[in-house]
Amino acid sequence: MSVLLNRFPNARAIATPKSVETMRQFLVPPLDQIMDRLWPGQLATKLVAAEPDESETFTLERHEFRIIEQRRTDCPDSTSLYK
Q: Which candidate, 26, 40, 82, places its Cα nearest to that of 57?
């Protein structure tokens, strides 16, 4: 996410509060060290979580998307987008 935010500095990375909580659980050492060993020099050096957003919808390039909490799919607290 840090790579995208560096490329698009006016963008915001948002996610549901539950998703952000899950992200933060995985963005702690030694995960960054493990990932660097698995994919040396291929990943961002700064890992960041999205900002929590309580909204049920958001707009991107004049298109409105509805955020649907799926509960558990392939990972906990999954979400989907519906346009």
A: 82
The token pair that represents 27 in the structure block: 């963005």
Q: What is the mean pLDDT of residues 35-54?
A: 86
Angstrom CA distances, 67 to 3, 73, 82, stand at 23, 15, 7
pTM for the predicted model, two decimal places: 0.74
Residue by residue, DSSP assigns 5-33 as HHHSTT---EE-HHHHHHHHHHSSTTHHH
Q: Give the count of alpha carbons within 13 A of 78, CB side only.
A: 8
Q: How far is 25 from 76, CA to CA, in rounded Å?
A: 12
Region 8-18: what's the mean pLDDT? 92
